[in-house]
Amino acid sequence: MLLAERTGYIIWVSDLKAARNLDKYGTVHYMSRKMHYVVMYMNAERAEDAVRSIGRLPFVRKIERSYRNELKTEYTKDNDDKSHFYSM
Protein backbone atom coordinates (compact mmCIF):
# COMPACT_ATOMS: atom_id res chain seq x y z
CA MET A 1 0.00 0.00 0.00
CA LEU A 2 1.50 3.30 -1.14
CA LEU A 3 0.55 6.39 0.85
CA ALA A 4 -0.35 9.55 -1.02
CA GLU A 5 1.89 12.58 -0.70
CA ARG A 6 0.39 14.92 1.91
CA THR A 7 0.94 18.61 2.50
CA GLY A 8 0.04 20.68 5.53
CA TYR A 9 -1.66 24.06 5.75
CA ILE A 10 -2.29 26.51 8.56
CA ILE A 11 -5.59 28.28 8.02
CA TRP A 12 -6.34 31.39 10.08
CA VAL A 13 -10.08 31.72 10.65
CA SER A 14 -12.47 34.21 12.23
CA ASP A 15 -15.14 31.68 13.23
CA LEU A 16 -14.14 28.31 14.71
CA LYS A 17 -17.66 26.92 14.56
CA ALA A 18 -17.73 27.43 10.80
CA ALA A 19 -14.16 26.07 10.54
CA ARG A 20 -15.45 22.60 11.46
CA ASN A 21 -16.59 22.34 7.84
CA LEU A 22 -12.98 22.28 6.64
CA ASP A 23 -12.79 18.51 7.10
CA LYS A 24 -14.36 17.97 3.68
CA TYR A 25 -11.16 19.39 2.11
CA GLY A 26 -8.71 17.26 4.08
CA THR A 27 -7.82 15.96 7.52
CA VAL A 28 -8.15 18.54 10.30
CA HIS A 29 -5.27 17.85 12.66
CA TYR A 30 -5.66 20.64 15.22
CA MET A 31 -7.91 23.63 15.92
CA SER A 32 -6.66 26.38 18.22
CA ARG A 33 -9.51 28.00 20.09
CA LYS A 34 -7.30 30.73 21.52
CA MET A 35 -5.44 31.82 18.39
CA HIS A 36 -8.15 30.89 15.84
CA TYR A 37 -6.21 28.73 13.42
CA VAL A 38 -6.64 25.25 11.98
CA VAL A 39 -3.83 22.85 11.04
CA MET A 40 -4.89 20.48 8.31
CA TYR A 41 -3.36 18.01 5.89
CA MET A 42 -4.55 17.20 2.38
CA ASN A 43 -3.39 15.31 -0.68
CA ALA A 44 -0.67 17.25 -2.50
CA GLU A 45 -2.25 16.50 -5.90
CA ARG A 46 -5.51 18.25 -5.07
CA ALA A 47 -4.11 20.82 -2.63
CA GLU A 48 -3.97 23.72 -5.07
CA ASP A 49 -7.66 23.46 -5.98
CA ALA A 50 -8.66 22.91 -2.35
CA VAL A 51 -6.69 25.95 -1.15
CA ARG A 52 -8.32 28.08 -3.83
CA SER A 53 -11.80 27.02 -2.73
CA ILE A 54 -10.93 27.33 0.99
CA GLY A 55 -9.68 30.87 0.37
CA ARG A 56 -13.11 31.83 -0.96
CA LEU A 57 -14.84 30.88 2.30
CA PRO A 58 -16.06 33.93 4.25
CA PHE A 59 -14.55 32.90 7.60
CA VAL A 60 -11.00 32.30 6.27
CA ARG A 61 -8.58 35.17 6.91
CA LYS A 62 -5.24 33.77 5.72
CA ILE A 63 -3.76 30.47 4.47
CA GLU A 64 -0.12 29.49 5.03
CA ARG A 65 1.61 26.39 3.73
CA SER A 66 3.47 24.29 6.28
CA TYR A 67 7.12 23.60 5.47
CA ARG A 68 7.42 20.76 7.97
CA ASN A 69 7.93 18.05 5.33
CA GLU A 70 10.78 20.08 3.79
CA LEU A 71 12.76 20.41 7.03
CA LYS A 72 15.65 18.09 7.76
CA THR A 73 14.60 15.65 10.47
CA GLU A 74 17.52 13.22 10.35
CA TYR A 75 20.51 14.39 12.32
CA THR A 76 24.08 13.17 12.24
CA LYS A 77 26.73 13.45 14.89
CA ASP A 78 29.56 14.90 12.85
CA ASN A 79 31.07 17.02 15.61
CA ASP A 80 32.41 15.73 18.92
CA ASP A 81 30.28 15.81 22.02
CA LYS A 82 31.80 18.47 24.29
CA SER A 83 29.37 18.02 27.17
CA HIS A 84 31.88 15.97 29.17
CA PHE A 85 34.12 19.07 29.41
CA TYR A 86 31.41 21.00 31.23
CA SER A 87 30.24 18.38 33.70
CA MET A 88 31.31 18.51 37.32
TrEMBL record:
It comes from the Bacteria. InterPro entries: DUF2129. Keywords: Cytoplasm. This is UPF0298 protein. It comes from Paenibacillus radicis (ex Gao et al. 2016).
